[in-house]
Amino acid sequence: MAKSDDKADVWMPLYIGDYLADTNRLTTEQHGAYLLLIMDYWRNGPPPDDEEILQNVTRLSKFLWKKHGPVLQKFFTVENGVWRHKRIDEEMAGAASGKAAASEKARIAANARWGKADAQSIAQAHAPSMLEECPSQSPSPTPNKPKAAHQVFEAGGESDRGNALPEIQSNLTEEQKALIPVVKALRTAGVAVMAANPLVAEWAAKGLTAERVPELIEFLRARGKTGNIHPNYLNTVIDDALNPPAPKAVKPRADDWFRSPKGIERKASELGIYARPGESHDALRERCDSELRRREQQGVAA
User: Do 41 and 85 meet the contact criterion of CB atoms below 8 Å apart?
Assistant: First the structure.
């Protein structure tokens, strides 16, 4: 019964009285953003002090983040490039302690029933189910659940596995294996991502191939993005990178008539002005300008 490991980051303790006491001055939008932040914290640890990633976690636009970010930051302290939350850190430590206590309880029970020889292995096998079946009054699940391979890599670990990933490829679906060339190119370019990440399939569906990765990276560097690139950030800009909007056609300005002799003659004809014998185009343009000003003052359309 190891299913508690699967549920370790699906829920977390939320003390409603404490939460409402600390957040009674937040707007509805700020409540939503704050809850998304603390839930991401519980699953993935302290978020980096990076506005683009924080916007992605809170689902706020750049404008709204500028508005609400300073308010939300008051609940955290920025340390070593990440946002730390004292209460969540305490709850996570308590969850780990609770799991250790459950493991010890299981060891003692196994020792009493089956003897010392197999007690340790049996206790380890039954500790997760005992933790689930005998929760504390305020249950705090452990955050130390082993992460999926792509989550470990993208968090910055196991980066020495190499592009081939032989020990992981056996766990991939055929569709994910087909994405390995794209993943290799992305990792070589500094994007911490693996084939099991569902974002890779989405990017491939939008047209990303291994051949287009250099084009994608060039787009990001042009935007000032340096160093390694987080998949969440890449996901916010990939549409623009792969399918940039077509440049808008420059329409000729309606007031460009004065730039050429033909334009001056055409405007003079529209205004009912006729060139005088020997009159230069500059002089004709001056008369057209005077007529336009007169009509503007009188509210007459040119």
Answer: yes
d(CA 132, CA 95) in angstroms, rounded, equals 12
Sign of torsion over alpha carbons 83, 85, 91, 97: positive
CA 242 – CA 212 distance, rounded (Å): 8
Structure token digits, residue 196: 């099991």
Going residue by residue through the chain, which has 302 residues, state the pLDDT in tens, using 9 for 90 and above: 444 444 446 678 888 888 998 899 999 999 999 999 999 998 888 999 999 999 999 999 999 999 999 999 999 999 999 999 998 888 888 776 666 666 677 777 767 766 655 555 555 555 555 444 444 444 444 445 544 544 444 444 434 344 444 434 557 788 888 888 988 888 888 888 787 888 888 888 888 898 988 988 888 888 787 778 888 888 888 888 888 776 666 555 556 788 889 999 999 898 899 888 989 988 988 999 898 888 888 876 55
Cα R_g (the chain), whole angstroms: 32
CA distance 91 to 98: 10
For the chain, the domains span 1-146, 149-242, 256-298
CB atoms within 10 A of CB 137: 4
Dihedral sign, Cα of residue 159, residue 164, residue 167, residue 168 = positive
Question: Do residues 220 and 188 touch, judged by C-beta distance below 8 A?
Answer: no
Whether the CB-CB separation of 216 and 238 falls below 8 Å is answered with yes
- The residue among 49, 53, 9, 62 whose CA lies nearest residue 231 is 53
Report the candidate in 132, 147, 136 with the shortest Cα–Cα distance to residue 1: 132
DSSP strands (E only) in 19-111:
77-79, 82-84
Q: Does the model's pTM come out above 0.70?
A: no
Q: Which residues pair with 297 in a beta bridge?
A: none
Q: Do residues 232 and 59 lie in contact, with contact meaning Cβ atoms separated by under 8 Å?
A: no
DSSP-H helix ranges across 74-197:
86-114, 116-133, 149-154, 166-169, 174-177, 180-188
